[in-house]
């Protein structure tokens, strides 16, 4: 059987890390694409040179022409500009809309059957723009945010409870921004809900509230430390998990920026919801019950995403 083909559109910090992880996990052959000449070719050669050492089988190539992504099974999009200190994800809007236009056209022409994972920020708006521009079915275009946000939440909870990150599950809904909704009720340590752990004296509500805040600002915390860019290791791991779920038909339940049309009472938009990823792309969206407080936070987050989408249409009227 021929190996799967993974196209990475954008070969910067996240793109390079994605390529390395895809190789280490032997998910398939990897094509790195970028507008910067030499960058994807250099990273491809460097990572390919690690294969004999780490003993994995995958071909790596770099390209500046979209024809190289022809027939890709998975496309992961990180093309665009990343945040610098003091910038919000929304500040990236104008530039990254134009980038999504060219990426969308490239995917439409050369990889119309791919499962497309968008990482470029502001995520919930960019995945919508990318879907509009590439025209692929909604279930085949998804945004990576929730896996990363819930991973940060899981890390901070594991540190607080002094338990393994492996045993912490956590839930984050809504847009990938300051309004995201970390759901304490659905977050557990080995199945024990966090509110029960508070009752058991393992932590306090105030400490958990601080963790929720830290999770919401997890991306900004990294940006402030790095000073020259934004997070890339955990975003890459998160997207590779989603790609692997698709390629291996794992039916994993992961929080993703998925297209909701009717679910959660929403009318055709991308937002972070728990989704089943398998060979059919986004196969199902899980509609969880929310209490009044959670619903209010979710609605606030949905409104923030709607505002961003409206701003996109204002910048590029061809979008509506
Ligand atoms: N087509 C293809 N590649 C492009 C284009 C374009 N039109 N415009 C920019 N790029 C490339 C840049 O040349 C760069 O190599 O996208 C790459 C982005 O890489 P980085 O600047 O290192 O950014 P990275 O940290 O990888 O983040 C990428 O993901 O998390 C988001 O906010 C982040 O939007 C940002 C994206």
Give a short synopsis of this structure:
This protein has 320 residues and is α/β, with parallel strands linked by helices.
Class by alpha and beta content:
alpha/beta
How far apart, in Å, are the first and last alpha carbons?
A: 42 Å
What kind of assembly state do the chains in view correspond to? single chain
Could you tell me the radius of gyration in angstroms? 19 Å
In the sheet with the most strands, the strands line up as 3-2-1-4-5-6
How many strands appear in the DSSP assignment?
12
Give me the strand/helix succession. Answer: EHEHHEEHEHEHEEEHHHHEEEH
Helix content: 40-55%
Name every ligand kind in the structure.
adenosine-5-diphosphoribose
Number of discrete helical segments:
11
What percentage of amino acids are in beta strands? Answer: 15-25%
- Mean pLDDT, nearest integer? 95
Largest sheet: 6 strands, parallel
Shape: globular
Give the low-confidence spans.
none
């Amino acid at each position: 059987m021929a190996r799967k083909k993974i196209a990475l559109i954008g070969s910067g910090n996240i793109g390079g890390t994605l390529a390395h992880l895809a190789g280490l996990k032997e998910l398939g052959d990897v094509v790195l694409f970028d507008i910067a000449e030499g960058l994807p070719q250099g990273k491809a050669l460097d990572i390919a040179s690690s294969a004999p050492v780490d003993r994995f089988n995958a071909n790596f190539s770099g390209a500046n022409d979209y024809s190289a992504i022809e027939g890709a099974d998975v496309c992961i999009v990180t093309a665009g500009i990343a945040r610098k200190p003091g910038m919000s994800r929304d500040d990236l809007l104008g530039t990254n809309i134009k980038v999504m236009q060219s990426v969308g056209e490239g995917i439409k022409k050369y990889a119309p059957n791919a499962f497309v994972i968008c990482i470029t920020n502001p995520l919930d708006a960019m995945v919508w723009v990318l879907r509009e521009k590439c025209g692929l079915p909604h279930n085949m275009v998804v945004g990576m945010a929730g896996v990363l946000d819930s991973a940060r939440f899981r890390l901070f909870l594991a540190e607080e409870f002094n338990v393994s990150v492996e045993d912490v599950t956590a839930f984050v809904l809504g847009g990938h921004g300051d309004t995201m909704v970390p759901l304490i009720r659905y977050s557990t340590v080995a199945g024990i809900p966090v509110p029960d752990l508070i009752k058991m004296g393992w932590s306090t509500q105030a400490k958990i509230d601080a963790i929720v805040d830290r999770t919401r600002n997890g991306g900004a915390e990294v940006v402030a430390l790095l000073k020259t860019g934004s997070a890339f290791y955990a975003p890459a791991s998160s997207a590779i998990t989603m790609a692997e779920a698709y390629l291996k038909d794992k039916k994993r339940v992961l929080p993703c920026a998925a297209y909701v049309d009717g679910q959660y009472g929403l009318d055709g938009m991308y937002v972070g919801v728990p989704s089943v990823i398998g060979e059919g792309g986004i196969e199902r969206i899980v509609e969880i019950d929310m209490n009044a407080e959670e619903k209010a936070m979710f609605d606030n987050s949905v409104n923030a995403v709607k505002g961003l989408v409206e701003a996109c249409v204002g910048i590029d009227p061809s979008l509506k």
